[in-house]
Amino acid sequence: MEMSRERWAELALHPVRIRILRAVAGARLTTHDLVELLPDIPQATLYRHLALLVKSGLIDVVQERKIRGAVERVYALPAHGATLDAAALATATPEDHARYFTAFVSSLLSEFSRYLARERIDFAADGVGYQQLVLHLTDAELGEFAAGFNALVGPLLGNEPGNGRIPRLLATVLMPADRPAATSDNEQVSGPVNDSDTTKGED
């Protein structure tokens, strides 16, 4: 995507636009579809943010069809997706990443809050879970893990809505973890490492 990280952040890191981009990901939706999927967003607000995303190239109009004299547009993510391009990502500063990650976590909290506000929630039946793990991997093992994960998830990204499919949000974070503190050059502190404890809902 030919866009600076500053412009990308300005456009994409907005609560309403994040939700629109997520709704369109892996789907082809009309404005009417988006209104139904995001009923808590006022229509005028939704239309304004959608128009901005289209104008900026973060969402494409992939089809136009006439219905009762009006033109209905169908929206989808562009082939390159709606993410920051590799060049801009490589030059992002720690402050940039702090903003990006804050938007990511805020969006996740918002989605989880909406789930908890439903009239009925069932973690087991809904397949809800969250956990934190530490994996000890060499660079080669990390590469194998990433390739295996992509091979597993990649084909599912093309699934269209319908046929009993339920939208399910999968969020991933991968980063180096701090090494356990050492009492000497060759001895590590014994006992549990908090970061490796699993904190989750029922899977």
Main sheet record: 3 strands, antiparallel
| C-alpha Rg (nearest Å) | 21 Å
Number of domains: 2
Work out the helix count: 8
Helical/strand content category: mainly alpha
Terminal Cα span: 37 Å
Q: Give the beta-strand count.
A: 3
Description of the structure:
This protein has 203 residues and is mainly α. The protein folds into two domains: 5-117, Arc Repressor Mutant, subunit A (Orthogonal Bundle); 121-158 and 168-203, no CATH class. The protein contains eight helices and three strands; from the N terminus they run ααβααββαααα. It has helices at residues 5-12, 15-24, 31-37, 43-56, 86-90, 94-116, 123-126, 139-153, and strands at residues 29-30, 60-67, 70-76. Strands 1-3-2 form a three-stranded antiparallel sheet. Strand 2 (60-67) and strand 3 form a beta hairpin. The radius of gyration is 21 Å and the shape is globular. The two termini are 37 Å apart. Mean pLDDT is 77; it is low at 183-203.
Record keyword descriptors for this entry.
mainly alpha; 203 residues; Arc Repressor Mutant, subunit A; disordered C terminus; single chain; 2 domains; three-stranded antiparallel β-sheet
Record the SSE blueprint:
Layout: H1 5-12, H2 15-24, E1 29-30, H3 31-37, H4 43-56, E2 60-67, E3 70-76, H5 86-90, H6 94-116, H7 123-126, H8 139-153
Antiparallel strand pairs: 1-3, 2-3
Quickly describe the structure.
This protein is 42% helix and 8% strand.
